Amino acid sequence: MLPVATYVAVTSKLGDRLQGIVGTRSAISDDRRAGDYYRVVDEDRLLWGGRITTRRSEPSRLAEKMRGDMVSVYPQLGRPKIDFAWPGQMAYALHKMPIITRVDRGLWAMTAFGGHGLNTTAMAGRLVARAITRRDDRFRLFADFGPRWVGGPLGQAGVQMSYWGMQLRDRLEERRGR
Description:
This protein is of the alpha+beta class. It has helices at 62-73, 117-134, 152-177, and strands at 2-11, 28-29, 37-41, 45-53, 82-92, 99-104, 107-111.
């Protein structure tokens, strides 16, 4: 698996500025290749996530970069204050499938959700729970998607270049669409 960093930021309370901008309390994920995800939290704060990198250290000016991503989608926000910004690590498998397996008696592994943990972790948890409580072996459907060598530092460089390529294609498509 490749360790990949992603980033999240939360604004200060936006009050009325948020009204009419994000029209739902549900989580939103855009459909670009290098997409962002966001939702309203605490009634009038915006939680924004996105970007990935293979860097292990927190980028400089992370809060400003995340604010820039927010404002590129919602310029009506002006220049919101960012109260919190942080990096997180997630695992990507080159085959882009989660790894769900029994490691040993009573020991299970569920990893490599590659940024799609909100939906697939629940599915993985159900598969493992059924395996434990009902002796259901459907978790074995993931047997072909076990851990594989990902190329070490060259694999990390490849993932980073792939992400930059996705960002470039997104920008070019957005320009053509204007």
